[in-house]
Structures are given as structure tokens and as C-alpha cells.
UniProtKB/TrEMBL annotation:
Subcellular location: Endoplasmic reticulum membrane
Organism of provenance: Penicillium atrosanguineum
Topological type in the membrane: Multi-pass membrane protein
UniProt keyword Glycosyltransferase present: no
Protein name listed in UniProt: Acyl-coenzyme A diphosphatase SCS3
Underlying gene: SCS3
Major enzyme class: hydrolase
Amino acid sequence: MPAPARPAPSPVVLLVYPVTLLLGSLFSVISPVARSTRSSSHDPAAPLAPSLAADLHLSESPVNYFARKSNIFNLYFVKVGWIWLTVAFASLVLFQPAYNLSSASHAQQEIRFRRSIQAFLRWCLATIVWYLTTQWFFGPAIIDRSFMITGGKCGQALDLVAKANSESSSVQLETVFTAAACKAAGGAWKGGHDISGHVFMLVLVTALLVFEAVGAGAVAASPSAAPESAGRERKASDPNALPNGDQDASFGTGRTWSMRLVWGVVVLGWWMLFMTAIWFHTWLEKWSGLAIALSTIYVIYILPRRLPPWKDIVGLPGV
């Protein structure tokens, strides 16, 4: 019997994320462009604490394109990153042999159906963490709550509100403001520890897709898939088999493009993580975002290898 395909990459690959943040942060200190951008601010950044223009009032028109919040990759990729993750993830489940129910025996269909359900559960767990961290946690999201707990507030907007309302009203508003509401009110999120949502989301998205793609790819490359393929080839001369052949070709194309989409999202996600490491947030804010993301990946993809009861629930990609 052939050895089973490796279902997932080694956890060591996750070291690419702290290394990326470290290199980006160091580059932001060493680079003349980054230093000149910070030197043009009204409130210069503390040493070894590179941050985004919006946080430290850097130049309104940063020299580097990726230091601008309005850059096209930030607007149409990072800001809607969970949509890109969902589309890429769905393409794996729809087209990869690890999950595809077409041209499979009854026993294989049961295995693939179980894999699909567990894959969906893994996506749901990651989505819940993303939603609670960045969107809503019984009110403001975890990122917003941590910012306010550490002394942050929506400075400019609250100053305006305080002039028109009583002190108690402004304090109440301060406790319910989210970063999005603050921006919409024309204020600036200042003063607290602002966990990097960009780092959190980009690490979680790229790591999730890598683990899922490697697991699904291992099944496709497994020698155990050969007999099934050979059986389809032997039926090629049968006229009744032609529609299935067309279907196999269609799914073959889908397999190829689903992997291209996944790895495209991963590569672009890593690049934007590197740009975030250079231009956005302080070191501690970036590393706190990284910690939340890697903790989530550990629970979903690493812990099941060591805890069989948890593996029976969430499974492992390709297993």
C-alpha cells in the first residue's frame, strides 16, 4: 500500500509571518523613503515604531504608493479580503478531487462529503473569529474594544460633540464609537493600542488557504487516485462515457484555475502583509494582530493533529 500523502504543511512554515513583519518593520526604519515620510509628520514616530500615515499624521501624499490607504490593492483586495478568501476556498471545495463528488464510487462520495462538511466547518470557525475580531463582539469588535480599553478614543469627533452636548453624552459616545463610526463622523482614532486588523486578516487568509490547498493538492497527487482515473480511461470508448469525459475535462480546468486563484490570493496577500509591515501601525500593534491570527490557525489546523477528538470534528485538509 502506498504511503499516504502528507495532509498539511509543517507548522514551521508559519515562521514566514513573523519574519515578514520583522523585515518590513526594519525596512521602515532603514529606508530613506520611509524615514523621510515620517520626518514630514507633525508628530514624529517613536524610534522603531513605524506607523501608518492616518495614525501618525504622516505626509498626505506618501512617496510610496502602498503607503496610501487609497491604493487599489488596499481598496479592492485587503478591504474585502474575506470575500476573496471565501471565493478561493469555495473553488477548492467545488473543483478539487479531495471534495468533488462526481465520478466517484459510493464509498469515495461518503469520504469526500465528510471532507466537504469539515472544510466548511473550518471556514466557519475562521469566519467567526474574523467577525468577532474585526466586525462585532456584542457591540464594538474586539479590535475596537481593546483600543478603547487601552485609552483610545475618537478624538476630533468627540471634541465636536462635547461642545454641543453635555459631558455625560460625550463620554457615552466615546464608549460606543467604533473605528468605522469614528471615521464616518469625521474623527480620528487616537491614543490606544490599535491591533492591526490588516495583519490579522492577511495572515489568517493566507495561512488558511495554504493549509487547505496543500491538503487538497496532496489528495490529487496521491497514487491511490490512479485506479479511478484508469477506470475512466478504459470507458472512453463507450459512447455513454463521453458526457462524463466532458465533465472530467471541465473539472480538470476548474482544478487548475482554482489552484491558480488560491495561490494568487496567497501571494498577493503576503505582499500586502509586507507592505503593512512597512507602512502601517506600530510594532506591538502588528505583532498583536499576528498573535490572534496564528492562535486561530493553531486551533483549526495544528491542534487537531495532537487532539484526536477535535480532529474528528474539524478534520484536516485532504484527510
